[in-house]
Amino acid sequence: MTSSNPSLESTRPPARRTEWIITLLIRVAGYLSIFYVALISLFLLKEGLPALTDVPLSSLAGKFWYPIEGYYSLWPLIFGSLTVTLGAALFAVPLGLGTAIFLSEVAPKWVKETLKPLVELLAGLPSVVLGFVGILVLSPFIRKAFDLPTGLTAFTGALLLGWAAIPTIVSIAEDALYGVPRSYREAALAVGATPWQVIWGVTLPAARSGVLTAVMLGIGRVIGETMAVMMVTGNAPVLPSGLGALFGPVRTMTATIASEMGEVATGSQHYQVLFLIGIVLFALSLIINITAFMVSNRRTQRVERLLS
Amino acid sequence: MKLLRITCMILIIAVLSGGCSARSSSEPGQAASVYLQNKGSDTMVNLALAWAERYQSAHPEVTIAVTGGGSGTGLASLANNTVDLANASRKIKAEELAQASAAGADPQEFVVARDAIAVIVHPDNPVENLTLEQIALIYRGEINNWLEVGGEDRPIVRLSRETNSGTHVYFLEEVVRLGNSEDKSIFSPQTLLLPSSEGIIAEVSDNPNAIGYDGLGYVTDHVKMVAVAPSAGAPYVRPSVTTVNDGSYPIARDLYMYTRSAPQGTLKTYLDWIFSAEAQQIVGDLGFVPVTQETP
């Protein structure tokens, strides 16, 4: 940008000032967002790290989360978040990708043009509304269908959040599939591939990076979701006892922060531990993003090599 | 840009709120304005605030500042003469009384409302009666099937308010620990912690396995209140305004206000108003139990 400026100045002097202002604004906006992220991380670390020294390790690594008596084990909460997130991903990824493939590769044009805006409308559903649907319809249904003691379970949360993640996955994955050049498909069809072989062997691999981004953004939405999950998962900080735990209540990290932060005394142990949970959550989403970035980068390179 | 907008917003808010406070402080110029400090129990903060707001809107010459901090804080401030009115969700202790007398105060006690917790189950649950101890064992996780307390063969699903709610703490101390301060029992980790009273009522009214508790004023017709006996063999009492006020329902407590000496002037008028039908209506609206008319 800066190196091309002198030549622009000489050819179009009147535009110079506006351009300079615009460049400056863009640059400031860019730096500011980096600055904010840095500030947020600093703040998180400053408030949360003292918990590691102030709170006894036996409490942090214990079995119970019961802050008013000084039990601050993070395990039930980490486990809760992971159960709900994995459950939601198992449900949302196949359905979301299937819908995206259907819309992009199989459906006639008019079907696609009606369905895609509808799916995207779903993405705008506020999570409180989703929570209400969960508590009034889904949870009683799940209790009766699986004959469980209560319908407020990790599974209910996973279904609901999976549902919330599907629009994100469909929308982005469909865009990625649509972006694959026609010639790829035509070439595959010309050498005798069936439509299914084209989708599985050519279109999907070519769009891999976009599809992975879609999946990761969907998972990101799930792990950070708070309101709906707080309403339907029961919020009991239980440690897992086998696979059945999916059908029991769990307490997620986000729900814990949301419901307890309002009442803690600033600077208390409980306050620090809540920030520590924030750090763990931050680290988890960072890991997800970095993995996604690395995986999608490697895949694109290989696909491009194959197809060029 | 973002920063600019936020700064603008802060400026606007500052200007607006500055304008508001300036107006309200200059308005009661006609009468001598009276300033009352009211501090204490966190359980009572919302009630005290609602009273203060309603009273101030009818009597603009009176300003009542309400803060929480806990019953002990309020009573200590009363002894130190920094507040006019202390809220307490328990009776004043002997040492607090001695402290206050040493500081030249003669604390007067007023029972301004009562707080009762109803234990609720699904209307189809055949269980009608429970002793306090049975409820404690259920919430500690030692009783896990309704069969053990005379019900159907169903698992028990425990529901509770979140740990930051005053009701949760009261229930923990008085029911789960049966009022024994040495007892360190806690809620079973299986207990579902729901963020709102509505959530508890919704789940109990839908789920025949569930047991929950809530302030008496919040309970609706969609759930069944269990009659509670203080100990095995004692009569079971169903919660109601009558049984709470005559002291027979066991999970209830009085809510107090203390003054430094016999109330006079504005303080007396305010306390008299608190016992009026209008103020006691607010008590009911906030989920507490109104007290019968008393003359302070």
Automatic annotation (TrEMBL), chain A:
Gene3D superfamilies to which the protein is assigned, alphabetical: MetI-like
Name by which UniProt lists this protein: Phosphate transport system permease protein
Record GO terms (molecular function): phosphate transmembrane transporter activity
This protein's record includes keyword Transmembrane helix: yes
Protein family per UniProt: Belongs to the binding-protein-dependent transport system permease family. CysTW subfamily.
Keyword annotations of the record: Cell membrane, Membrane, Phosphate transport, Transmembrane, Transmembrane helix, Transport
Functional summary from the UniProt entry: Part of the binding-protein-dependent transport system for phosphate; probably responsible for the translocation of the substrate across the membrane.
Listed GO biological process terms: phosphate ion transport
Membrane topology: Multi-pass membrane protein
A Pfam entry, by short name: BPD_transp_1
Coiled coil regions in record: none
Domain ABC transmembrane type-1, residue spans: 78-292
Subcellular location: Cell membrane
NCBIfam families: phosphate_pstC (TIGR02138)
PROSITE patterns, per the entry: ABC_TM1
Keyword Transmembrane helix in annotation: yes
Transmembrane feature ranges: 20-45, 74-103, 123-142, 154-178, 227-250, 270-295
GO CC, alphabetical: plasma membrane
